[in-house]
Amino acid sequence: MRPGRLGDSGYPGTVRALIVGASTLTPVPGSGLVSMEQAALLMMRRVAAAELDGPRRVHALVLGPVGTRLTDTAAPDRVSADQVGAVAVAASAAIEVGSREFRLGNRAEADEALAQLQAGQPVRPVTVVAVSTMEPKDGRREDLVALLAELAARIRAEPSCLRYTVHGAHGAADGPLLVIQEFTSIEGFRQHREIVANQIPRLAALLVKPPVPPTLFEPVLN
User: Fold this and answer.
1) Mutual orientation of helices 186-196 and 107-118 as an angle, nearest 10°?
2) Residue 60 to residues 150, 161, 203: CA-CA distances in angstroms?
3) pTM
């Protein structure tokens, strides 16, 4: 095969679109091979976008669970097939929008992306970072770490979760833990909060003080 740039195309003004699933960004147990293949496709899009110039663009739609005619029991917040199509068409028609990744994890995110595209506004994913400090009871730090590790697999599998990490003070074998989570949107965080609500009593039993809602941060400079 002749070496060349991924963005090479004989058609000025070409718009290409790539559709991938949430496992591209979020670890999903049991989907290792698919996740790696999807992540590779997303990086291929980013390389192609970096090589393009002029009006040529390449977009990616990163989808959460999608409701279709075959999924009558789909959760009401699932992105609909019509929304996916509408965002794809609007992104193609919006010539002022450069190559982009559109994260459509739920209906609210899809509606927001479509509204911004139709209004001619730049579409920026507004992520939310949630930061919590947890102080374990004496002798219960290992139990707390074990519980957080158990919850990690579930939380990282949520379509809107981009990051879930737990940190301790440098060089300290004991003391408080810092939990950092990142979600694709405030709506994604709210859904996460509902999902883990029944785990609060288990956490409270291991902490000096009852857990409090995390502090939320959003981008100021990207």
Assistant:
1) 180
2) 32, 18, 38
3) 0.53
